Amino acid sequence: xxxxxxxxxxxxxxxxxxxxxxxxxxxxxxxxxxxxxxxxxxxxxxxxxxxxxxxxxxxxxxxxxxxxxxxxxxxxxxxxxxxxxxxxxxxxxxxxxxxxxxxxxxxxxxxxxxxxxxxxxxxxxxxxxxxxxxx
Length: 135
Prior knowledge:
With 135 residues, the chain is mainly alpha-helical.
C-alpha cells in the first residue's frame, strides 16, 4: 500500500480528468436529458472513487445487462437503502419512509472509473449507453 500512496495525488488527478471526460462525452452524445451524473469538483474534494449515474427513464437493470453484454462492467453499490437493511429493522422504518433513497436504489449505476481507464474506453462506454437509449 505504501508504494501506491506515493501516487495518490496522480491517481486522484486522473480520476478527476476521467470524470470530466464522462461529462463531456455525455454532453456530446446528447445523454444529459436521460441521465444525471456527478458534478466535477477540481478542488479534490471529490476523488471519484465511484462514478455513479442516475437514470431518469428506462430501466437501470436492463441498461446494466446491455452493458455487460458489451463487456462493460458496472456496479450497484446500494441495492437497498440503509433503512431497508436487516441491521436497522429495530428503527421501525418501512417501505416508503425514504422515497428518494428508495428511488436511488433502483435508478443508480456505477460506471467504470480507475486511473488507467482510457478515453477510448470511456467513449465506448458512453456510445454503448447511447445505443441502449436508441432501442
